[in-house]
Amino acid sequence: MEAIPILIKKKDNGKYLSIHFDNNTKFNILSELLRVESPSADVQGHGGPKIIVRNKENILIDQIEPVGNYAIRIIFSDNHSSGIYSWGLLYDYGINHDKYLQEYYNSL
Q1: Digit-coded pLDDT (tens) for 90-105
Q2: Which helix (H) or strand (E) covers residue 85, if one does?
Q3: pLDDT for 33-66, tens place per residue?
Q4: Which 3 state secondary structure label does DSSP give 23?
Q5: Are 52 and 107 in contact (CB under 8 A)?
């Protein structure tokens, strides 16, 4: 069964998404990672190659909005807001945070 968040909030003025799951795991996910790995079509390149988003090291999370009982929408300081982050995706970003961030930095 998939872990469900019991607490989701901005941390450090929006630099991190702090998320606590019902299986006692807790993550602080860097807003830069969330922005550059956004599940939105304009980043993931649905219909084409994935887009490498640059210059987001100072990005902040402005707002977090629930999407049903399965996900959140994050509105970033650059007004990007089209990604829907499911619980499974957020858990994956938490578990693999450093790996995904290093892969991103390597791609720049």
Answers
A1: 999 999 999 999 999 9
A2: strand 84-86
A3: 999 999 988 888 777 788 889 999 999 999 999 9
A4: coil
A5: yes
CATH code of 5-107, in short, is 3.30.2020.30
- 99's CB contacts (< 8 A; 6+ apart) are none
For the chain, the structural domain boundaries read: 5-107
Alpha-carbon span 56 to 10, nearest angstrom: 17
CA dihedral 59, 17, 12, 10 (to 10 degrees): 100
Rounded to an integer, what is the distance from CA 26 to the centroid of its chain?
Answer: 14
Question: 45-71 burial, b for 16+ CB within 10 Å, e for fewer?
Answer: eeeeeeeebeebeebbbbebeeeeeeb
Q: Is 30 exposed, middle or buried (0-12, 13-18, 19+ CB in 10 A)?
A: buried
User: What ranges in 1-108 are assigned the alpha helix state H?
Assistant: 31-36, 41-44, 87-95, 97-107
Of 108, 96, 106, residue with least CA distance to 34: 96
